[in-house]
Amino acid sequence: MASSEAPARRAESKRSGAIGTLFKLPFTLLGILVISIICSVLIEWVGIYFGWFSQPGSEHARQTMMSEMGYLDSQFTRSLLVSSPVEFATWIVNTCYQWMFVKSGIAAWAASGNGSEGWIGVVKTYLQAGMYVTLMTLTRCVILMLTAPLFILAGLVGFTDGLVSRDIRRFGAGRESAFVYHHAKRMVTPIFLTGWLIYLSLPFSIHPNLFLLPCALLFGMMITIATSSFKKYL
């Protein structure tokens, strides 16, 4: 009796774990966004303090933000998720800007008295840089939302290729490795989330394809390895 109840408990725990993971996913993504904004702002502030950038003050952050918005305007004119991705992205960024900086009075105070001397001018410079970096990170977040079908496609291709490789191994008397399966399975989510975190936190402008395409390829490869190394018989 106990032996028959054990598989039922394991199946129930797996279902509960899957439901819990789906429930926590939006909060995980929101946490990644918040951490990315904090890391980006801190990196920008450290760069301003130590003079890493050739542009004075908050100009580096402003130019980086404009470059990211330029990628969005020129490269994401069509999307599977929304009919007009540029208008959608502009609405999101403008809404966040209004609620975070305009209605709070931060934008008006930072823009007033440009060129102020002393510590007030320094605070305003750092505050403007933080605003630009936040908007840049939000723009990259919208780009990630629009490129979500790329990761879905890479996952489906990797899953299909892995199933084919698994069937070949089954009918060809191939050996299976639980070590490879478990480690590849553990790497799928960290690759997905870490890639997004790094992309959102980069302190310089980068074309989305230069970063997202390798991440999607690696994501699909891990799914292929995990699926192909899954045990032969259920």
What's the quick description here?
It is built from 8 helices and no strands. The protein is mainly alpha-helical and 234 residues long.
Fold and architecture overview:
This protein folds into two domains: 31-146; 148-234, no CATH class. It has helices at 2-50, 59-75, 85-102, 106-111, 118-146, 148-171, 178-201, 208-228. α7 packs antiparallel against α8. The two termini are 21 Å apart. The protein has 234 residues and is mainly alpha-helical. The radius of gyration is 23 Å and the shape is elongated. The chain crosses the membrane at residues 21-43, 142-164, 184-204, 210-230. It comes from Halomonas huangheensis. Keywords: Membrane, Transmembrane, Transmembrane helix. InterPro entries: DtrJ-like (IPR022266). This is Integrating conjugative element membrane protein.
Order of helices and strands: HHHHHHHH
Strand runs, count = 0
Sheet with the most strands, sense and barrel status: none
Low-confidence stretches: none
Q: What percent of residues adopt helix (DSSP H or I)?
A: over 70%
Q: What global shape is seen?
A: elongated
Strand portion: under 5%
Query: Please, how many domains?
Result: 2
Structural class: mainly alpha
Cα radius of gyration in angstroms: 23 Å
Average pLDDT value?
A: 76
Q: First CA to last CA: what distance?
A: 21 Å
Protein name: Integrating conjugative element membrane protein
Transmembrane segments: 21-43, 142-164, 184-204, 210-230
Keywords: Membrane, Transmembrane, Transmembrane helix
Pfam families: DtrJ-like
